[in-house]
């Protein structure tokens, strides 16, 4: 009976156009858009003239000054930065002689007059700087033994922007958007999880009612559906990562098998999250799907999918949240593959995901199994 | 036809303050086509859902095949086929796969299942639509698929909850014929509907429900014998005065008459040749009349007389 349910669940899953769109097509389409958009920026970053920028020092920030000096000293630089006072900088910005003003102080911020490719590059530069500064500060305070290694890796990455080939680390600063994309597509597995709950509960669907009338124990039916979902999610994750790695040529370094692992476990996290969501309340499947989408998009936003520096902000304001936000955990697991040599942090993230899967699945099964309904 | 298949005792089901089933009870014997008839909201579907252990209930007991029915009565469930009011099939699977899936929940043996699925397809006349997605089927065909999914495993007890809602007359007749055939093949049927014509047509015994209560039970004839009305005469006629209507009302076996200026309706209780006597009065008074109807009582009349309201709104 388990295999009968499992087989048909998989058949239904792969035949569901809606599900396949969100779990395979949508991430692929979004990945293509990311690639096109970031390729232009990346090409501009390495091929166009340096971007004229004014630096206004609100407070002394030696680290940032040294970064700017280093950039200015390079032969092929993307930034032509000059230090000045705020009034002069504003005048230059109004006249269009510079593309942006970077305010240097305890925090680094940016003011631009318009939206364009140069301004986007500046924004990305500031976001990356803030993110890296946060990583280094965190490592120094929490894990000083590995500080040298991390700083070395980050330095290598900076060199990549200068078109110097390096080791297994990622070669493009924009790749973190692809990591978040994998996280997002993994969490779309929640639609399948919601589907499991809906189609197994008599008060949520006619199919649920019919299944509840059959001689198949609900535990068998639920377990088969969960296993089927994990399998479908496995296939979708493999397709998604393969497409990003081999078609869009997103550089995952030389740890691609571990990226697959992170995406697969991440996908199962999405399924179990959806299963748990579906088990709560009597709302219709569409309502739950909408709610799930809203939650996923919020989690992805907070993990930095839409704004690169959001993760750093959350890390600073709510450090614990990044450790339990599934989107952040999934993208972090891939990100840290490119940052750290040892795999401790990666496996910590994987274990976090496995625990999440276990908790959500167990809660979902407990809430659905043996449920009798006061009303249908 | 003697073994009791379903026994419901004193069932009470409340939704908050609303009493959906009020000390409801019935007994269904093997081989019957038992009709549960009542207007929308009378408690038919709630009864079925309690019977199938989908719903909890506040009081009472339910036995099927002589055993108490609980959510984990898998042995009993194996012998029941359910056709719900709402179509319950997978849009992602084709007709054959849908039937195979639901049959597979009851039958493990692949070869036997294949045979049963083919039989169910033939029985519901879906041979030409095996590979069709449910989305491409018409309303009638979809209902037939819904039925095929519920009966493919050859259950001993088949429960059909308003299976003909929103179905065209041709498909409806096909479905009703199918139900009678299933019964001939040995299945006991519970059939709920608010269409009295269907219940009259196929059910061997009927329980009429209203507001969660069973208000009458018996065969079609037994139910009709419970009421005063035995014949309703309608005559299209103009210009009747009170003297003539009074003369008609005074005829033997006529207990009521109504005249709206264009149609005279006369209600009779027992007696023979009531129509001839009414027409004699009109002819004697030199009154011309148009079309004349004489109708025997329907279950709607039974319901009307017992509850004072029509079984269903005119559609």
- Overall 3D shape of chain A: elongated
Give the beta-strand count of chain B: 14
CATH C-level category of the largest domain in chain B? Alpha Beta
Percent helix of chain B, as a range, is 25-40%
Distance between the termini of chain A: 26 Å
CATH level-3 fold name of the largest domain in chain B: Rossmann fold
C-alpha-based Rg of chain A, rounded: 24 Å
What kind of oligomer do you see? heterodimer
How do the helices and strands follow one another from N- to C-terminus of chain B?
EEEHEEHEHHHEHEHEEHEHEEHEH
Quote the average pLDDT of chain B.
90
In the predicted model, the low-confidence regions of chain B spanning at least 5 consecutive residues are: none
Keywords:
heterodimer, A: 376 residues, mainly alpha, D-Maltodextrin-Binding Protein, domain 2, four-stranded mixed β-sheet, 4 strands, elongated, B: 315 residues, alpha/beta, Rossmann fold, Alpha-Beta Plaits, 2 domains, six-stranded mixed β-sheet, four-stranded antiparallel β-sheet, 11 helices, 14 strands
């Amino acid at each position: 009976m388990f295999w009968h349910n499992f087989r048909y669940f998989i058949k239904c899953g792969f035949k569901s156009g809606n599900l396949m769109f969100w779990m395979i097509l949508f991430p692929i389409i979004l990945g293509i858009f990311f690639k096109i958009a970031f390729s232009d920026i990346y090409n501009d970053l390495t091929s166009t003239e340096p971007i004229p920028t004014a630096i206004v020092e609100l407070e002394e920030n030696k680290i940032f000054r040294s970064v700017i000096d280093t950039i200015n000293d390079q032969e092929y630089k993307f930034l032509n930065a000059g230090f000045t006072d705020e009034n002069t900088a504003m005048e230059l910005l109004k006249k269009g002689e510079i593309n942006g003003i970077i305010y240097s102080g305890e925090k680094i911020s940016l003011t631009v007059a318009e939206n364009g490719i140069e301004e986007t590059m500046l924004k990305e530069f500031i976001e990356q700087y803030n993110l890296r500064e946060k990583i280094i500060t965190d490592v120094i305070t929490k894990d000083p033994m590995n500080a040298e290694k991390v700083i070395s890796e980050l330095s290598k990455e900076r060199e990549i922007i200068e078109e110097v080939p390096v080791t297994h680390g990622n070669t493009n600063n924009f790749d973190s958007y692809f990591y978040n994309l994998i996280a997002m597509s993994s969490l779309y597995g929640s639609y399948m999880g919601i589907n499991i709950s809906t189609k197994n509960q008599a008060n949520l669907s006619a199919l649920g009612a019919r299944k509840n009338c059959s001689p198949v124990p609900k535990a068998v039916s639920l377990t088969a559906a969960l296993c089927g979902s994990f399998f479908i999610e496995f296939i979708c994750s493999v397709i998604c990562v393969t497409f990003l790695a081999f078609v869009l040529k997103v550089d995952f370094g030389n740890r691609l098998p571990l990226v697959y692992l992170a995406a697969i476990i991440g996908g199962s996290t999405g399924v179990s999250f959806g299963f748990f969501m579906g088990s709560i309340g009597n709302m219709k499947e569409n309502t739950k799907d909408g709610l799930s989408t809203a939650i996923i998009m919020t989690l992805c936003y907070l993990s930095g999918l839409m704004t690169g520096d959001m993760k750093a902000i959350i890390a600073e304001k709510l450090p614990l949240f990044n450790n339990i936000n599934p989107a952040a955990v999934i993208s972090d697991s891939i990100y840290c593959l490119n940052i750290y040599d040892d795999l401790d942090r990666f496996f910590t993230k994987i274990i976090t995901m496995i625990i999440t899967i276990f908790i959500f699945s167990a809660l979902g099964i407990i809430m659905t199994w043996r449920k009798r309904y006061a009303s249908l | 036809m003697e073994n009791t298949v379903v026994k419901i005792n004193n069932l009470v089901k409340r939704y908050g303050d609303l009493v959906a089933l009020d000390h409801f009870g019935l007994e269904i014997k093997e081989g019957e086509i038992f009709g549960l008839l009542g207007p929308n909201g009378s408690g038919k579907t709630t009864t079925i859902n309690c019977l199938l252990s989908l719903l909890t209930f506040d009081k009472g007991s339910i036995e099927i095949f002589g055993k108490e029915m609980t959510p984990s009565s898998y042995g009993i469930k194996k012998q029941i086929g359910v056709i719900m009011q709402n179509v319950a099939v997978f849009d992602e699977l084709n007709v054959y796969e849908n039937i195979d899936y639901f049959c597979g929940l009851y039958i493990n043996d692949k070869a036997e299942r294949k045979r049963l699925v083919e039989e169910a397809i033939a029985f519901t006349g879906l041979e030409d639509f095996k590979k069709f997605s449910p989305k491409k089927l018409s309303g009638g065909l979809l209902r037939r698929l819904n039925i095929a999914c519920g009966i493919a495993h050859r259950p001993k007890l088949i429960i059909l909850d308003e299976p003909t809602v929103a179905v065209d007359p041709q498909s409806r007749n096909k479905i009703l014929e199918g139900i009678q055939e299933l019964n001939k093949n040995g299945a006991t049927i519970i059939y709920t509907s608010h269409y009295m014509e269907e219940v009259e047509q196929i059910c061997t015994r009927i329980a009429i429900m209203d507001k969660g209560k069973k208000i009458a039970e018996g065969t079609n004839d037994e139910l009709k014998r419970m009421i005063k009305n035995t014949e309703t005469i309608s005559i299209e006629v103009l210009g009747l005065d009170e003297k003539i209507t009074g003369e008609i009302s005074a005829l033997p076996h006529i207990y009521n008459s109504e005249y709206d200026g264009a149609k005279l309706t006369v209600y009779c209780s027992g007696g023979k040749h009531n129509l001839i006597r009414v027409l004699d009065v009109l002819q004697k008074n030199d009154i011309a009349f148009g079309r004349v109807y004489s109708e025997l009582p329907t279950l709607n009349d039974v319901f009307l007389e017992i509850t004072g309201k029509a079984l269903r709104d005119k559609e």
